[in-house]
Amino acid sequence: MESNQTAKLDKVTEDVLKVIDSYGFKQEGAYNLRLNGMAVCHGDSRHIHIVKKEDKPGIDIHISGEAKDEQVHIPVVMSQEGVDVVYNDFYIEDGADVTIIAGCGIHGEGCSETRHDGIHAFHVGKGCNVKYVENHYAEGNGTGQKVLNPVTKIYVGEDSTFTLETTQIKGVDSTERENYIELADNAKLFVTEKLMTDEGQTAISNMDVELNGENSSARIVSRSVGKGTSRQVFHPRAIGNNRCHAHVQCDSIIMDTAEISSIPEIDAKHVDAQIIHEAAIGRINDEQLVKLRTFGLNEEEAEAVIIESFLK
Amino acid sequence: MESNQTAKLDKVTEDVLKVIDSYGFKQEGAYNLRLNGMAVCHGDSRHIHIVKKEDKPGIDIHISGEAKDEQVHIPVVMSQEGVDVVYNDFYIEDGADVTIIAGCGIHGEGCSETRHDGIHAFHVGKGCNVKYVENHYAEGNGTGQKVLNPVTKIYVGEDSTFTLETTQIKGVDSTERENYIELADNAKLFVTEKLMTDEGQTAISNMDVELNGENSSARIVSRSVGKGTSRQVFHPRAIGNNRCHAHVQCDSIIMDTAEISSIPEIDAKHVDAQIIHEAAIGRINDEQLVKLRTFGLNEEEAEAVIIESFLK
Residue A209 — φ and ψ, nearest 5°? Predict the structure, then answer.
């Protein structure tokens, strides 16, 4: 059963959607747009059904094992002040192949807080291929804090691959992310986290990966840039409870008077758990700067190029 | 003023000293042997004076800037049950070049706890070269826990180099180490930590390094082997408060049903702080095992060779 409920969107919403949905948001196929705490439009596709929760704000997204190379878009836009807490649950059947494009954009013009807490749970069956793309962004001249506190729980079934791409583009005053991931036998996890903070912004990123399954594996790459007086704290944790592989890599560029802490934790609780961690924090590469400036770029332009390529 | 108070040592004490003092303990030059909570012999040298504390157990070690390539030996042996807490303070004058050989050996035959807590503080002047070597070891058939909880505070002055070599050889049932190090301008720190646990032993190692000085640097290498059902937790922390370099490397071999956690923390609080961390936990190298076995070694012998070279 396919259902559709479209809506006419204002320019602010359209513009924010362009930034947070890099795959291009359209009111087609499977989608759900949450605007200022309300689902304003949604659509199902043949293999993806979205059902509004009865007991709390949020949706259940049911993805059939028949879904192959399909997309579902569930962006959130907040252009009014206030706090929005939403619970989204994904039920992904054995064999599904799907890309989920989420993200939250705040357009804040007011003087009180605008906050979105997206609490997501992914129940991934066997033999799936799931990609979850999440972009965070805030804009607007309001003095109110623009806050995003996502909580993401991911249960990856046997022989499934889960790819998590999370990016904080800019403008978010405060974020505290909680990620919890469990991997079954032969499950594979790929995480790419990109984060940029500026001015007085703060970002805390916690990620626990439990490698429970035999031959499960995780590859986590985190890249961040801290500017202004911003502060970042990373706490990725890989727990090897079985024969498994994990590789965690955190690289940060520090600028101005920013402060960055990286507190990775690797716990081997099985003789065949192999876990590697690498972290580096440092200033922008001077040699690259000099090289770019010989091409005629000024210092700011050269820095921008280096940061962009670092976060790519 | 040189003073000397020698003593005749029993065989147990002599044997333990051979293990914990790899430089060779002699009742010559500057030394102080603490046996079961009592200083039983000590000597001063021209440039190194040892003074018993009046207010609490322990000694003050005064090292003159005239000391060049000198040694001081301050081993501790416990062959009786009980708890011994001792406070040793080192005052190292500008320009001194000294090697301090400490260490604690427990010979436990009883059924109640034998514990030594050595609380050491190093006040290192400018332009010094200090090496501190500390070996921890326990033996004996007693069922009482053999416990070592050292606390080490090191203040490294301008242009000084401090080398810390700490080794837990074997037999220690429980250890909780606290290290706190501050580095002034151009101060250099080199740390090598080696740790082996077996059976139901537990080891916790915390190390905070505050890189306060301009061009201060730290190089920390930690290598450990966990066997049996033992548990190890490492928490090295490098805090860059100025233009500085730090490199922290933790490698562990896990065997049997041991568990090892590595929780390094790197905090960059200055744009010119460059901090790198690497950690790896894994099983013994299979290729090396196979190679050694083709040379005729059995599995246990091959493992022993690999572990020995890993901890060298």
Answer: -115, 115
b/e map of A9-23 (b: 16 or more CB within 10 Å)? Answer: beebbeebbebbbee
- Give the DSSP letter of residue B289: H
Residue A226: name the closest of A181, A249, A196 by CA: A196
Joined together, the tokens standing for residue B123 give: 């006040």
In a domain, B42, yes or no: yes
Residue B288 counted as domain residue: no
Q: Is residue B296 part of a domain?
A: no
**Nearest by CB: A271 against B240, B254, B270:** B254
The model's pLDDT over B6-61, given as tens digits with 9 standing for 90+, comes to 899 999 999 999 999 999 999 999 999 999 999 999 999 999 999 999 999 999 99
ipTM reported for the complex, 2 dp: 0.86
Alpha-carbon dihedral A243, A245, A248, A249, rounded to 10 degrees? 160
The pLDDT tens digits of the residues spanning B91-131 come to 999 999 999 999 999 999 989 999 999 999 999 999 999 99
Q: What is the C-alpha separation between B44 and B87, in angstroms, rounded? A: 18
How far is the C-alpha of B297 from the C-alpha of B308, rounded, in Å? Answer: 15
Distance from B258 to chain A by nearest Cα, in Å?
7
What's the total number of domains in chain A?
A: 1
Query: Rounded to whole angstroms, how far apart are CA atoms B173 and B194?
Result: 16
Domain limits for position A104: 4-311
Distances in whole angstroms, Cα of residue B76 to Cα of each of A18, B25, B86, B153: 69, 11, 10, 18
The alpha-carbon gap from A216 to the nearest alpha carbon of chain B, in Å, equals 15
pLDDT of residue A1: 43
Query: Which residue, A98, A169, A106, is CA-closest to A131?
Result: A98
Q: Which residue in B33, B15, B92, B40 sits closest to B61, CA to CA?
A: B92
Q: Which residues of chain A have pLDDT under 50?
A: 1
> What is the reported pLDDT for A3?
64
Q: Give CA–CA dist A9/A103, Å, rounded.
A: 17
Looking at the complex, does the CB of residue A254 fall below 8 Å from at least one CB of chain B?
A: yes
Residue B245 is assigned to a structural domain of this protein: yes
Residue carrying structure tokens 């409920």: A5
Which residue(s) pair with A76 in the sheet? A34, A104
Tokens of A78: 């907040």
The string of pLDDT tens digits covering residues B250-288 is 999 999 999 999 999 999 999 999 999 999 999 988 888
Across the interface, of B254, B265, B271, the residue whose CB is closest to A263 is B265
User: Helix, strand or coil for residue B46?
Assistant: coil
User: Does A280 reach chain B within 8 Å, measured CB to CB?
Assistant: yes
DSSP, collapsed to helix, strand or coil, labels residue B154 as: strand
